[in-house]
Design goal:
- 38% of the residues lie in helices and 17% in strands.
- The chain is an alpha/beta fold and 367 residues long.
C-alpha cells in the first residue's frame, strides 16, 4: 500500500468533507471511506468533526465495528457531529495505520477514534506529531508507548472478563450435557479476558462442566484469520457441537458469524453466545432461536463518550475503563432465553460490582 503525500491526503479528505462527510463510494489507498448509505453521508451539524478508523472486518460484522458505528450515529444525532469513516484492510501494518490516522487528522477531523488495539502504535506515533488533534484507541494500549504521557491520547478499555463471566454463568445454567465451548480470534490481552471470564463463570456454577477452547489463529498479526473468517468460525464451532458441546461462546469479531451458522445447522438444543453487540437483534431469522445471549461490550458508549467529552472540553488523557459498575459491559436478554435464570446472573453481577467476586482476566489463572 503506497503512502499518500500530505497534500494529496488533505485534498482527498477535504473533498469528502465538502461532500457532507460522505461522498458516495469515495475511498483512498489510506482507507478513508464513507459508505453511500451511512449516517456520515447526511450529517450536517455544527458539532465535532469525528474521524473513525475501523478494525479489520469493518462495518457489517454485527459486533465490534458495528457497535462503534452505533456510538458514532448517536453522536451525530445528539451532539450534531459530522463524521467520516476509514476502512482497514487485512494487509495493514503500523505504517499504513498511521497514515490512515494522519490523513483523518490532516483533513480537520477531531477527535480521531481508532477501533481496535492494532492501532495503538500508530496512534501513539501520530498523536505525538499532531498535538492539536485528540486521538483515542478502543481496546488500545497506545498510552503505554510514548516516552512521556501525551495530553491528546487516550485508550478506551473494557473489563470484558466481567461480561464474559455472566454469559459463562448463563451457559452453565443452560447446558444439558455439561459441555460448552469457546471460540476466540487470537489469544492475547484482548481476547484472553473473554476466555478467562467465561470459563470462570461456568466453573462458578459447576466446576465439572467441560469447556472446549479453540482459537482461530495463534498469530496476532493474522487479523483476517482471527476476525474476518466466518468459515473458520463455523468449522471450529461445528467441531465442538459434533464433539458433544451444546453451547458455544465466541469472541472473534466477524468470524463469529460462522459460529451462529454452525449452531443453526446443528439443530435443536444447540446454542451460541454472541459478543460485543446484542447479536440476537441482527441475526437472520433461522439463527435467532439459537442465540442464547451476548456478552455486551459497550463500544458504542465509549465512542459516544469520547465525542461528548471532547465537545464539553472535559476529555482526559490516559486509560478510560468500562466495566459492570458503569454499564460498560453486561449481557443481553433479547429473545427471552435467559429470562428464567436472569435473577441468578444478576446476583453474580452484583457480587462482581461489590468486589465479592474478582474475575480473572488471564486464562492461565482460571482455576
Amino acid at each position: 500500500m503506497r503512502r499518500f503525500s500530505k497534500i494529496a491526503a488533505v485534498t482527498l479528505v477535504g473533498a469528502l468533507a465538502l461532500a457532507g462527510c460522505g461522498s458516495s463510494g469515495g475511498s483512498s489507498n489510506s482507507g478513508v471511506k464513507s459508505a453511500s448509505n451511512d449516517v456520515c453521508k447526511t450529517a450536517k451539524g455544527d458539532g465535532p468533526k469525528v474521524g473513525v478508523a475501523y478494525d479489520v472486518g469493518g462495518r457489517g460484522d454485527q459486533s465490534f465495528n458495528d457497535s462503534a458505528y452505533k456510538g458514532l450515529t448517536k453522536a451525530v444525532k445528539e451532539l450534531k457531529a459530522t463524521c467520516i469513516e476509514a476502512k482497514a484492510t487485512t494487509s495493514d501494518n503500523d505504517t499504513t495505520r498511521a497514515e490512515r490516522l494522519r490523513t483523518l487528522a490532516e483533513g480537520g477531523f477531531n477527535p480521531v477514534i481508532a477501533i481496535g488495539y492494532l492501532y495503538s502504535p500508530a496512534a501513539a506515533k501520530v498523536a505525538a506529531e499532531m498535538p492539536d488533534t485528540s486521538f483515542a484507541v478502543v481496546d488500545g494500549f497506545s498510552t503505554t508507548l510514548p516516552k512521556t504521557p501525551l495530553k491528546n491520547l487516550n485508550d478506551l478499555s473494557f473489563q470484558a472478563n466481567e461480561g464474559s463471566y455472566l454469559v459463562g454463568v448463563a451457559a452453565a445454567l443452560k447446558t444439558k450435557v455439561k459441555h460448552v465451548g469457546f471460540v476466540g480470534g487470537v489469544p492475547g490481552p484482548v481476547i484472553g479476558p473473554f476466555e478467562a471470564g467465561f470459563r470462570s463463570g461456568v466453573a462458578s456454577v459447576d466446576p465439572s462442566i467441560k469447556v472446549d477452547v479453540q482459537y482461530l489463529t495463534q498469530d496476532d498479526k493474522d487479523a483476517q484469520a482471527a476476525y474476518e473468517n466466518p468459515p473458520g468460525g463455523k468449522d471450529a464451532a461445528s467441531a465442538m457441537y459434533e464433539g458433544g458441546a451444546d453451547i458455544v461462546f465466541h469472541a472473534a469479531g466477524k468470524s463469529g458469524l460462522g459460529v451462529f451458522q454452525a449452531a443453526a445447522a446443528a439443530g435443536d438444543g444447540k446454542w451460541a453466545i454472541g459478543v460485543d453487540s446484542d447479536q440476537y437483534l441482527s441475526a437472520p431469522k433461522d439463527q435467532k432461536p439459537h442465540i442464547l445471549t451476548s456478552a455486551l461490550k459497550r463500544v458504542d458508549t465509549s465512542v459516544f463518550d469520547e465525542v461528548k467529552t471532547f465537545q464539553d472540553k472535559s476529555l482526559k488523557p490516559g486509560f478510560v475503563s468500562y466495566n459492570l459498575k458503569n454499564d460498560g459491559v453486561g449481557y443481553a436478554k433479547s429473545g427471552g432465553f435467559v429470562d428464567d435464570i436472569s435473577a441468578k446472573i444478576d446476583a453474580a453481577a452484583d457480587k462482581i460490582k461489590s468486589g465479592e467476586i474478582v474475575v480473572p482476566s488471564d486464562p492461565a489463572k482460571v482455576k
